[in-house]
Amino acid sequence: MRKPVIAGNWKLYKTKDEALALIEELAPLVAGVDNVEVVVAPVFTVLPALPAALAGTSISLAAQDVFWEEEGAFTGEVSPRMLLDAGASHVIIGHSERRQYFGETDQTVNKKIKAALKGALVPIFCIGETLEAREAGDTFKVLERQVQGGLEGLSETQLAPVIIAYEPVWAIGTGKVATDEQAQEAHAFVRGVVAKMFGQAAADKVRILYGGSVKPDNVKGLMSCADIDGALVGGASLKGASFASIVRFGE
Ligand SMILES: O=C(CO)COP(=O)(O)O
């Protein structure tokens, strides 16, 4: 069985004090939840402040990006080893905002996934089509290219910890959540692409999260879909109460 993952992507929000206040609010609200993996992803500068606040909780810490080299003359970048050093166990890779604004490609995403795995970080590998691609009927073509490009060259063993996040770009921050049917259709397709690359057994074990306007009132429907194994939450993860009620979708 695939254990659900609910991850909060805080994006470019929350200073250290704001992050600590949010954890203080969130931790008691998700205490005792052991059937869902809970992850939060603050900005780089906040990472080192969180492990102490998260001690005694089962909330894991993720970064929002990583570079593929371990060290060197790469001004502004952060390596897998440095993320581990800061207390992160997970890292979001290839978010559509990075693809859109920061020149991330399937090739850079692939290098980052490999580097993260080598550094013992769990990649949360993001994919998703734009509205333009969907309207042109290219959704599956885009998803196939992103999945194949991102996971190229991985072994079945390397694939095992990888978490995929399907985030249709048109649903991010728009309040326009994909319907359960749209999301399920994309997730089943993505699992099929993974199966073609790594075999059905490996694909059946991979968690595929949905992201894009996930809220307390739509998470239940999404989570009832056969191939949806969790959520990557933006806006609704910035408040303890709404994120906790998403984490507790099954209650
Ligand atoms: O991009 C997202 C998570 O990575 C989704 O953001 P929203 O939940 O704000 O739509």
Automatic annotation (TrEMBL):
<feature type="binding site">
    <location>
        <position position="213"/>
    </location>
    <ligand>
        <name>substrate</name>
    </ligand>
</feature>
<comment type="similarity">
    <text>Belongs to the triosephosphate isomerase family.</text>
</comment>
<feature type="binding site">
    <location>
        <begin position="234"/>
        <end position="235"/>
    </location>
    <ligand>
        <name>substrate</name>
    </ligand>
</feature>
<keyword id="KW-0312">Gluconeogenesis</keyword>
<feature type="binding site">
    <location>
        <position position="173"/>
    </location>
    <ligand>
        <name>substrate</name>
    </ligand>
</feature>
<dbReference type="InterPro" id="IPR022896">
    <property type="entry name" value="TrioseP_Isoase_bac/euk"/>
</dbReference>
<feature type="binding site">
    <location>
        <begin position="9"/>
        <end position="11"/>
    </location>
    <ligand>
        <name>substrate</name>
    </ligand>
</feature>
<protein>
    <recommendedName>
        <fullName>Triosephosphate isomerase</fullName>
        <ecNumber>5.3.1.1</ecNumber>
    </recommendedName>
</protein>
<comment type="pathway">
    <text>Carbohydrate biosynthesis; gluconeogenesis.</text>
</comment>
<dbReference type="GO" id="GO:0004807">
    <property type="term" value="F:triose-phosphate isomerase activity"/>
</dbReference>
<dbReference type="Pfam" id="PF00121">
    <property type="entry name" value="TIM"/>
</dbReference>
<dbReference type="InterPro" id="IPR020861">
    <property type="entry name" value="Triosephosphate_isomerase_AS"/>
</dbReference>
<comment type="function">
    <text>Involved in the gluconeogenesis. Catalyzes stereospecifically the conversion of dihydroxyacetone phosphate (DHAP) to D-glyceraldehyde-3-phosphate (G3P).</text>
</comment>
<keyword id="KW-0413">Isomerase</keyword>
<feature type="active site" description="Proton acceptor">
    <location>
        <position position="167"/>
    </location>
</feature>
<comment type="pathway">
    <text>Carbohydrate degradation; glycolysis; D-glyceraldehyde 3-phosphate from glycerone phosphate: step 1/1.</text>
</comment>
<comment type="subunit">
    <text>Homodimer.</text>
</comment>
<keyword id="KW-0324">Glycolysis</keyword>
<dbReference type="InterPro" id="IPR000652">
    <property type="entry name" value="Triosephosphate_isomerase"/>
</dbReference>
<keyword id="KW-0963">Cytoplasm</keyword>
<feature type="active site" description="Electrophile">
    <location>
        <position position="95"/>
    </location>
</feature>
